[in-house]
Amino acid sequence: MADETWNEPGTDTATIVTKKIKEPDRYVVLLHNDDYTSMDFVVGVLCDIFHKTPEEATAIMLAVHQQGIGQCGVYTQEIAETKVALVRQRARAAGFPLRCTMEKYR
Fold this sequence. Notes:
Blueprint: E1 2-7, E2 16-21, E3 26-32, H1 39-50, H2 54-67, E4 69-76, H3 77-94, E5 99-104
Antiparallel strand pairs: 1-2, 3-4, 3-5
Helix pairs in contact: 1-2, 1-3
Keywords: Hydrolase, Protease
Function: Involved in the modulation of the specificity of the ClpAP-mediated ATP-dependent protein degradation.
Protein name: ATP-dependent Clp protease adapter protein ClpS
C-alpha cells in the first residue's frame, strides 16, 4: 500500500492527513483444454487478445494442451473480465468450445 500525505483543505493550521491507498485486486486469466479447439486458434487468441509473442503463445498453448490449463496473464478485475469475454466471443464465433476463466490471484 502506498502512503499519500497532504494538508487538509479549509484549515488554518497545517494538518497532515495520511491515507492508505489500497492496490486493486489482481486476477489471473486461464485457458482450459478441450478436444475440439485447434492449437492454431489458441495461439492466435493469445497473440491478439493477450499480446503474446508467437513463442510465448505457443508455450502457453502447449501448457494448456499438456497440463489441461494455462495462464494467460494477471490483470485488474475489469481488464481480466474484458479479456475473458473477448476470448469467449471469438471462440463462439469460430465454433469452438474454448473455456476461458479468471480467478483471484494469490
